[in-house]
Design brief:
By secondary structure, the protein is of the alpha/beta class. It has one domain: FAD/NAD(P)-binding domain (3-Layer(bba) Sandwich). It is built from 12 helices and 14 strands. Helix 9 (300-317) crosses helix 12. The longest helix is centred in the C-terminal third of the chain and has 18 residues, at 300-317.
Length: 363
């Protein structure tokens, strides 16, 4: 068995590490010049989205031998709608860094990988398939899945983000659900440290947003954050993505090709995070190759999580600021804390089943 992994991101590297633990050394092909050679941004691992797992970092370590150091644990989440505010406290999850940073998740995984990585690779999937017995498609987006007619695109999103300097509480994350700021989308502030943070704004590319200019929204959002924090927040790095596809593969495996990470569909349509599921997909692809499980079966919970998230995404498309106010108001106090802390229920699953009869699931 000789295995090629196309992409040295979260899923590709997690797959390689797991294969190596079982005596298989794949060859990794990465089109960029180094691991994590992309824009820098902050992300969150919120435990509420991964029930029954309560601590993703501990689970990756204890259950799979994947060792990651997050930027910080999250002990406070502040949510703002147009007229309401909710503050939720407790052990809520973790923040982490992505991209061209020495402490990014990609960089941490590379240090645990022994297999050869070919950077600046121009190898195509078809070339790898003709030379290797198995190919893991872990390219970070759904383009190859589309090309092989194995992809259902559910929506596209446009995102603008920046790294800012200031004074921050690294244990606190802030989110805005305000359609005056981001129509049918959301905004975040995620600290990297006490001195740097990531701010971002994302909106779905809906017909009702077709005349919206994200740069105009950004200016208003940036002013709002600076005013709310009473800081200048100079920008040191920024990026913009237009029409990024969110969708999922019909099949996780076709023949000896495995679709992993965002190439499969691990990015949640609801709020746009999915690094834990992406890492799991790489681990599960390796398990199949090592005879430790069937990839399609192992991926069923991740597929269900995506579908549940899509329901909530469609619900957001049909809400107004008044509806968001009611949700944020309800999250304030004991209700919000119980939802985020309880190990007995999966809020994402429960909410999606309750909402399904009332929303339209078409694009």
């Amino acid at each position: 068995m000789n295995v090629a992994i196309m992409g040295a991101g979260l899923s590709g590297l997690a797959c390689a590490i797991t294969l190596e633990k079982n005596g298989i050394y794949p060859t990794i092909f990465e089109k960029r010049s180094r691991v994590g050679d992309r824009f820098v941004n902050g992300e969150v691992l919120l435990s509420i989205f991964y029930r029954p797992v309560h601590d993703c970092i501990a689970s990756l370590s204890d259950d799979f031998g994947i060792y990651l150091k997050p930027a910080s644990p999250i002990h406070k989440l502040e949510l703002f709608s147009k007229n309401e505010k909710a503050v939720i406290e407790g052990q809520l999850g973790f923040t982490n860094i992505r991209g061209r940073e020495q402490d990014s998740f990609e960089s941490q995984l590379e240090k645990q990988t022994k297999s050869t990585i070919h950077f600046n690779s121009e190898k195509t999937y078809e070339q790898l398939l003709s030379s290797y017995s198995h190919v893991i498609l872990a390219t970070g987006d759904g383009e190859y899945a589309k090309r092989t007619k194995n992809y259902r695109e559910d929506l596209t999103v446009s995102i603008k983000g920046a790294t800012v300097e200031g004074v921050f509480d690294r244990y606190s994350v802030t989110g805005w659900l305000n359609y005056d700021m981001a129509p049918f989308g959301c905004c975040y502030l995620i600290p990297y440290s006490e001195k740097e943070a990531h701010i971002s704004l994302s909106i779905p590319d809906l017909p009702k947003n077709k005349d919206i200019q994200i740069n105009n929204l950004w200016d208003k959002f940036y002013d709002k954050v600076r005013s709310q924090l009473n800081q200048e927040l100079p920008i040191t790095d920024q990026f913009q993505i237009t029409n990024y596809s969110l969708g999922i593969c019909q099949s996780a495996r076709i023949g000896n090709t495995f679709y992993a990470g965002n190439c499969f569909g691990t990015l949640m349509p609801f709020l746009g995070f999915g690094q834990y599921a992406s890492i799991l997909s790489g681990i599960y692809a390796a398990y199949d190759l090592c005879g430790l499980g069937k990839y399609e079966e192992l991926m069923k919970p991740i597929r269900q999580g995506y579908d549940n998230s899509l329901v909530l995404r469609r619900a957001m498309d049909q809400l107004s600021n008044n509806g968001l106010d009611r949700i944020v108001h309800a999250l304030q106090g004991t209700i919000g804390e119980k939802l985020f802390q309880s190990n007995l229920i999966n809020p994402l699953k429960v909410a999606s089943y309750l909402l399904r009869p009332y929303i339209k699931m078409t694009k």
